[in-house]
Amino acid sequence: MNDTWLVAGLGNPGPKYAGNRHNVGRMVIDLLSRRAGSSLTSHKARAHVADARLGVLPGGAPGPRVVLAIPGTYMNVSGEPVSALLRFYDIPPERLLVIHDELDLPPSTLRLKRGGGEGGHNGLRSISASTGTRDYVRLRVGIGRPPGRMDAADFVLRDFSPAERPELLVTLEEAADAVEHVVTEGLEKAQLRLHTP
Asked: Any idea which residues are catalytic in this one (predicted)?
């Protein structure tokens, strides 16, 4: 039984997009790799990956093995590298955790769930199509709705403003904590921690 997790953070590649709202998933992976003392390196599956152990198990043992991944493709074709990594590391889709931005949640709100629809999110749609299942864990990072009449597609490709940065940094830490709780305690306990006020 392979107890390794694949944790994928969605976004778009390149410095032009690095600070975009659409890239919060990638930002969480960067933070997790720093926490684990691991470097993201190029993988033949068109992704950057770090092989790490996350968190601490009850009793103080190091947490489980986790493959942290950032697809090297654009958001709408994230599924190809994600499914290739699942095959390469022989990880079942139910041990896939995808971190992504969520327009339908207020800024800085975090929600964990398994399965469900894609809600118009092209990255999730691509992953569901490539893996043949929706039965994977999602960590949804709220970015809120665009102001006024701004198009949602333009909004997600905008950088977080300097005024939003302090709150964003807190949210990224909380998101990284949530990922660690999923892999060390299981989804249900992690959901209770995250969703209970």
From this structure: 22
What's the pLDDT tens digit per position in 137-193?
999 999 999 988 899 999 999 999 999 999 999 999 999 999 999 999 999 999 999
Range of the domain at 37: 5-195
- Rounded to the nearest 10 degrees, the angle between the axes of helix 187-195 and helix 165-185 is 150
pTM: 0.96
CATH number, domain with residue 92: 3.40.50.1470
Q: How does 62-89 read in b/e, with b if 16+ C-beta sit within 10 Å? A: ebbbbbbbbbbbebebbbbbbbbbbebb
- Any binding-site annotation on 17? yes
- Catalytic residue (choose from 22, 43, 48, 100): 22
Q: Please indicate whether residue 22 is annotated as part of the active site.
A: yes
